[in-house]
Amino acid sequence: MKNRELLISGAEQLGLPLSTEQVDVLFRYVAELKKWNRKINLTAVREEREIVIKHLLDSLAFAKGFSPGPGLTLMDIGSGAGFPALPLRIVFSGIAVTLVESVKKKASFLRHIVRTLNLERVKVLDERAEALSETMRESYDVVTARAFAQMDKALAAGAPFLKKGGRLILSRGPEEGVTEAAVGKSGLAVAKVIPFTLPHSSYGRAIWIFKKPE
């Protein structure tokens, strides 16, 4: 199966039919990622097929956790190469995205991608989340934090930026969990855990949805 067909088929399995234009833009993104990855270490995943499965499809799976309608605001903490936020923004053009990436070279790549793909309503902040202005707190409908190795740290980093009723969404391995103490300290509650298998792979995953009380 060619990589375009792999993406289209995998997205359909996730309940997300893609248009030809969306597929074109996603592969322009992949092409730029591969080019920049030769100069700076954006991802250890280098084969295009693996990028489609482990990055694009895993990113699109985050849509299981929220309703990405027009006007929705999403912050992605530790964006790295832009996953999951940029694939979500490409597919759901009405959402507004803030990418938080403190490593300057990675932030430069993100700005380049946003310009190259003409993505509106996307801003890049090259700072650590804890250094962001107080005015940004409690401002977002959704926060994602794919880069964090530990869910406890992702909760601590993401919770302050959620509006009341907002959702923190994480994608993890099926065996991973979070401590009750960390959930309690964050002020969030576990709303749902959605187990699934990443399309075209044997990778078990789970989407964790944490909600901020109204």
Describe it.
The chain has 214 residues and is of the alpha/beta class. It has helices spanning 3-13, 20-37, 48-60, 85-91, 104-116, 151-158, 180-186, and strands spanning 73-77, 96-100, 122-125, 140-144, 162-172, 189-197, 204-211. The protein has a single domain, classed as 3-Layer(aba) Sandwich (Rossmann fold), CATH 3.40.50.150. Helix 6 runs parallel beside helix 7 (180-186). The model has no long low-confidence stretch (mean pLDDT 93). The longest helix is centred in the N-terminal third of the chain and has 18 residues, at 20-37.
Summarize the structure in short:
This protein is an alpha/beta fold and 214 residues long. The chain has helices at residues 3-13, 20-37, 48-60, 85-91, 104-116, 151-158, 180-186; strands spanning 73-77, 96-100, 122-125, 140-144, 162-172, 189-197, 204-211. It has one domain: Rossmann fold, CATH 3.40.50.
CATH architecture: 3-Layer(aba) Sandwich
Strand count = 7
What is the CATH C-level name?
Alpha Beta
Q: What percentage of amino acids are in beta strands? A: 15-25%
The percentage helix is 25-40%
**Strand count, sense and closure of the main sheet?**
7 strands, mixed
Count of domain modules:
1
What name does the CATH topology carry?
Rossmann fold
SS summary, helix count? 7
As laid out across the biggest beta sheet, the strand order is: 3-2-1-4-5-7-6
**CATH-assigned homologous superfamily:** Vaccinia Virus protein VP39
Distance between the termini: 46 Å
Summed over residues and divided by their number, the pLDDT gives a mean of 93
Overall radius of gyration: 16 Å
- Note the run of SSEs as H and E: HHHEHEHEEHEHEE
Uncertain residue segments? none
| Structural class designation | alpha/beta
Shape: globular
